Amino acid sequence: MRSTRAKNLSAAPLQRGAIPVNETAKPKKKPELRFSITGPKPSPQLVEAIEAIERSFNAEAWFLVHGRDAQSRFSMLNQHVYEAFFSQRAAFTGKRVVLILDSPGGHAGPAYKISSLLGRRAEHFVVVVPRYAKSAATLLALGAHELVMCEDAELGPLDVQIVDPDREAVASALDEVQALERLQAAGLQALDQAMTLLIGRTRKRVDTLLPISLKFVAETMKPLYENIDVVHYTQWSRMLKIAEEYAIRLLQRQYGRHDAERMARQLVECYPEHGFVIDGDEARALGLKLTDESKEISSKLDSLIEILSSQTILGRLVEANHEKANQKDAPGA
Questions:
Q1: Nearest Cα to 129, choosing from 249, 278, 331, 319?
Q2: Strand partners, 278
Q3: Are 302 and 279 in contact (CB under 8 A)?
Q4: Residue 78 in contact with residue 312, Cβ under 8 Å?
Q5: N or C: fewer beta carbons within 10 Å in the chain?
Q6: Distances (CA, A) of 195 to 10, 215, 216, 275
Q7: Measured between alpha carbons, how far is 211 from 25 in angstroms, rounded to an integer?
């Protein structure tokens, strides 16, 4: 039998702050985090920046970032990237989503489908461009309910890039399409010059000189027109039309049909090269409605620039166990 002293000690209440025997408190281990599709192990700095972005936009942060280390199947905006986002559609359905978009582009079709998917399923879809969203990435951004371009960010024209096997190089579809337009303009200018010259020197009537001038211009321009491949011209013209029609369908949700057609046509046809810089001022002049970034977001996104330039990040932050459980269903797993 235990002594009275032992009983008293056993019955005595614990003092505040006392630790029971064999019940030593253990610090709660923070869950390991991963990106739901692909990406590096997130650093504390990256997690802090993501949390700040989510607070600022009151939305869940998703990433579509193509870095220099791009994996083969996720190296650009392509069908693999679309399928990966589509497989996780339940995660953003009915939620406010902010997409950090940093990409040189890729294929128009998958970009359109990702933008439409987020636009349809998310309650509110925000695109934030820290550095650049060029080509097909610009197309994706056009479908957002809200577009944020950081101070040094840029978009790009939508003229489709095609691998030309004859030249063994990537070329803009606009090169061949605009070549015909330039030839037409040059032919009309040559006709004006010929008529002006002949009228001034011969003093003859216009109806007498016009057939002569037309024949001269036609014979001059004929060799140039013969170098145009009609099949190539038709194919590349259709490719440009695809990009334009995708842009119209995304833009008209926010701007209406008329403004959507105008902006889409400008993005496809009115810039001299594929790499042309469309910064915030140019985007506003084009007619795009941009949301000004807050100072907090600006500083957080600036801190991400180094990470964005070197890493490919797709998806959102999830706990490691959750991510592993879903890897079996991920495309290409």
A1: 278
A2: 155
A3: no
A4: no
A5: N
A6: 117, 12, 11, 40
A7: 101
C-alpha span between 158 and 137 (Å, rounded): 9
Q: Is the CB of residue 63 less than 8 Å from the CB of residue 38?
A: no
245: Cβ contacts below 8 Å, ≥ 6 apart = 264
**Is 56 exposed, middle or buried (CB count within 10 Å of its CB: 0-12, 13-18, 19+)?**
middle
- Please name every residue paired with 163 in a beta bridge, in sequence order, or none if there are none: 170
Give dist(CA 53, CA 130) in Å, integer: 12
Class of domain 33-156+277-327: alpha beta
pTM of the model: 0.74
Query: The tokens of 174 are what?
Result: 């606009």
> Could you report the per-residue pLDDT of 261-314, keeping only the tens digit for each?
999 999 998 888 888 999 999 999 999 999 887 666 777 777 777 777 778 899
What is the residue extent of each domain of the chain?
A: 33-156+277-327, 169-232
pLDDT band at 128 (very low <50, low <70, confident <90, very high): very high
Are the C-beta atoms of residues 57 and 126 closer than 8 Å to each other?
Answer: yes
